[in-house]
From TrEMBL:
<dbReference type="InterPro" id="IPR018541">
    <property type="entry name" value="Ftsk_gamma"/>
</dbReference>
<dbReference type="InterPro" id="IPR050206">
    <property type="entry name" value="FtsK/SpoIIIE/SftA"/>
</dbReference>
<keyword id="KW-0067">ATP-binding</keyword>
<feature type="domain" description="FtsK">
    <location>
        <begin position="1"/>
        <end position="120"/>
    </location>
</feature>
<dbReference type="InterPro" id="IPR036388">
    <property type="entry name" value="WH-like_DNA-bd_sf"/>
</dbReference>
<dbReference type="GO" id="GO:0003677">
    <property type="term" value="F:DNA binding"/>
</dbReference>
<dbReference type="InterPro" id="IPR027417">
    <property type="entry name" value="P-loop_NTPase"/>
</dbReference>
<dbReference type="Pfam" id="PF01580">
    <property type="entry name" value="FtsK_SpoIIIE"/>
</dbReference>
<dbReference type="GO" id="GO:0016020">
    <property type="term" value="C:membrane"/>
</dbReference>
<dbReference type="InterPro" id="IPR036390">
    <property type="entry name" value="WH_DNA-bd_sf"/>
</dbReference>
<dbReference type="InterPro" id="IPR002543">
    <property type="entry name" value="FtsK_dom"/>
</dbReference>
<feature type="compositionally biased region" description="Basic and acidic residues">
    <location>
        <begin position="20"/>
        <end position="35"/>
    </location>
</feature>
<keyword id="KW-0547">Nucleotide-binding</keyword>
<protein>
    <submittedName>
        <fullName>DNA translocase FtsK</fullName>
    </submittedName>
</protein>
<dbReference type="GO" id="GO:0005524">
    <property type="term" value="F:ATP binding"/>
</dbReference>
<feature type="region of interest" description="Disordered">
    <location>
        <begin position="20"/>
        <end position="41"/>
    </location>
</feature>
<dbReference type="Pfam" id="PF09397">
    <property type="entry name" value="FtsK_gamma"/>
</dbReference>
């Protein structure tokens, strides 16, 4: 998104529509003037990007704080640069559809829900609990002044969906971020060669890292290890703390997971932690 904004700034335009019109006019002008070079004739239009999250609840439970920040940033600035969000969930709860997310995504659709509370969570009003199902839905946009409109969603068979996705797949080759692909993922259980330790998905934890040591100090003072507690105290996301938990369990600092309850702490001092971490 930031890269797209930089390109818009270079061309002194405010939104993707103006940018694409400028690129089209430039290519036509070059062709008219007989400039057949690739740089002059290629249409450097910026494609639209649609980000679809099929079930938000799962991701919000895994990395709620980080995901919320990303969604809000894209919702606030993505439209002008051609990036759009489609978010879906079967659990319209405040932990999933947070106040910040709702404030930045005014366009909403609700299918039949169990009760008026779920309807108000999505649409700020009841009504979705009275829908008939089978595509019957309420739509709310900024133009509707807070009054949802009842519309009928079209049925799409599996065959139609396959045809559509195949068509989209044929439009252009996929573009991957090579920096992400090239990052080696350390397999759990295989130790690194430079003395550190790995937790979830290859994340490396240095026993001397101030954040790690602060996590141990908090754990010792509370007498328990809780990922939610450490996320709050450390200001870190779920991925970091979950990976830390995996590593600490592997080296014997904390006990195994026990459902939603905090883990037991197996040490009584930082010195014991250092011995286990460096052994």
């Amino acid at each position: 998104m930031e890269r797209r904004y930089a390109r818009l700034a270079e061309e002194r335009v405010k939104k993707i529509e103006d940018y694409n019109e400028k690129m089209k006019a430039r290519a036509e002008e070059a062709k008219k003037n007989g400039d057949e070079s690739e740089d002059a004739t290629q249409n450097n239009k910026m494609p639209y990007i649609v980000i679809i999250i099929d079930e938000m609840a799962d991701l919000m439970m895994q990395a709620g704080k980080d995901l919320e920040q990303l969604i809000v940033r894209i919702a606030q600035k993505g439209r002008a640069s051609g990036i759009h969000l489609v978010l879906a969930t079967q659990r319209p709860e405040v932990k999933v559809v947070t106040g910040l997310i709702k404030a930045n995504i005014p366009g909403r659709i609700a299918f039949k829900v169990l009760n008026g509370i779920d309807s108000r969570m999505m649409l700020e009003s009841g009504g979705a609990e009275k829908l008939l199902g089978n595509g019957d839905m309420l739509m709310l946009t900024t133009e509707m002044m807070g009054k949802p409109r009842r519309i009928q969603g079209a049925f799409a068979s599996d065959d139609e969906i396959n045809k559509l996705t195949n068509f989209l797949r044929e439009q252009r080759q996929p573009e991957y971020n090579n920096e992400v692909i090239s990052q080696a993922v350390q397999i759990k259980g295989m130790g690194p060669s430079d003395g550190g330790s790995f937790g979830e998905l290859g994340r490396k934890y240095d026993p001397s890292d101030p954040v790690v040591r602060k996590a141990i100090e908090i754990t010792l003072s509370k007498g328990k290890f809780s990922t939610a507690m450490l996320q709050t105290y450390l200001g870190k996301g779920h991925g970091f703390v979950s990976g830390l938990a995996i590593w600490l369990e592997e080296i014997g600092v904390i006990g195994p997971a026990n459902g939603n309850k905090p883990r037991d702490v197996m040490i009584k001092s930082l010195e014991e932690f250092d011995q286990l971490a460096n052994s």
